[in-house]
Amino acid sequence: MKYQDEFRDRHVVLGLAARIREHVAGRTEPMTFMEVCGTHTMSIYQYGLRTLLPPQVRLISGPGCPVCVTPNEYLDRAVALCRLPDVIVATFGDMVRVPGSTSSLQEERARGADIRIVYSPLDAVAIAARNPEKRVVFLGVGFETTAPAIGGSILAAKKQGLANYFVLAAHKTMPKPMGVLSADPELKIDGYICPAHVSTITGPEIYRFLAEEFHIPCVITGFEPADVMQGVEMLVRQVVAGESRVETQYSRVVRPEGNRKAQEVIREVFTPCDAPWRGIGVIPGSGLRIADAYAVFDAEKAIPVAVEETREHAGCLCGEILKGKAAPTDCPLFGGACTPESPVGACMVSSEGTCAAAYKYGQ
Amino acid sequence: MCLGVPMQVVSVGDGDIVAEIDGVRKEASLMLLDEEVKEGDFVIVHAGFAISRLDEEEAQETLRLMREVFKPEDMA
User: Fold this and answer.
1) Which domain range does residue B25 map to?
2) B-chain residues within 8 Å CB-CB of A350?
3) Where are the beta strands (DSSP E) in chain B?
4) I need a labelling partner for A82 at 20 to 30 A (CA). Which of A187, A209, A257, A280 fits?
5) How many structural domains compose chain B?
6) Would the pTM count as exceeding 0.80?
7) Among residues A233, A291, A284, which one has the least CA distance to residue A31?
8) B positions 1-30 inside 8 Å of A (CB)
9) CATH code assigned at B36
10) One MF term from GO for this chain (chain B) (predicted)?
11) Does the CB of A12 have a partner CB in chain B at under 8 Å?
């Protein structure tokens, strides 16, 4: 694949690392950059990028894994829904193994629940069309990248006249939690590696307040190792120059206006709402619920169900890890009671989770 | 889940495409794409939807800027 290979060129990555070292030479004060996208987290661990950076440049992971920031209460509702005899739960694969308060979808499936892992929400719409006697509930989690796809599935179900397709929506939008973390004096974030495909949909403007109000440089960065290294280099340059702007390293994909068609689908199908984030709490206006005009597709409204009382997992540090305040190895469960084979917390379940990346690549 | 994958367009249908990466072919909806695509283009596919076209000129420009930084003596 021609682009991927060139953006993985080891010499280019090392050249960029050398440039970063030149920029920070003689500086004693460290700078901390946060990546808020799970795919960046994976890339940083997979290619060992931290080991190429000078000690003055520190990378920390933030709340960028959609499965990880989804609180237990949501999983408990999904579990309650899948226990209904006429319900098929359709979901992306990484939701299945996340433990809720007392069960997971995987455990429910072993007990006979009909749970289907799909690649696209359109596959879930097709399942609904093939199973008119069943109600199909798609688990709609994810950020601005995923929301339009799930909005698109609702529009497709409407067009097909389906009355048995529903979405349990817990979409979240990215810039608000970045504002919360920016204001946290304990974290002291000096720059953001901004998510690539969220920005593909939204465009770069959503980060402007971080640069202007919090004076934090923001660089929208691609996922290949040379992309991440160049993104870090662009952040370092801004910090050294005392600047704070929003820049786009990933200009081969991200347009200044974003993807207007996808933005339009989000506006049509969803309404902004307050949303709970694992580890961070409720952030006003940081979620997307299904708009009233599409309420018949809203699983929460259309399929009432009793949900068990939410319980947190004792000892799990996912919350602190998602805020960038703890590293996976700070958690007493990491690698012992909690492994990818037998995860306790969400950050170990999803391949985009910080703990899963740290476990897999051993850093 | 948020993984968007660059794929090459193999054929363009009515509202959808077939795209390929590493010999794997998948269908993707064009419902969310606000740009024209044609056979041979690269697109980012996420959860069954093409969400952006990959701009070859911008890709080459980014690589050019990266190579500018690359110095052989750093590789010693």
Assistant:
1) 5-74
2) 1
3) 5-12, 16-21, 24-29, 42-46, 49-53
4) A280
5) 1
6) yes
7) A233
8) 1-4, 6, 8, 21-22, 26, 29
9) 2.30.30.140
10) iron ion binding
11) yes
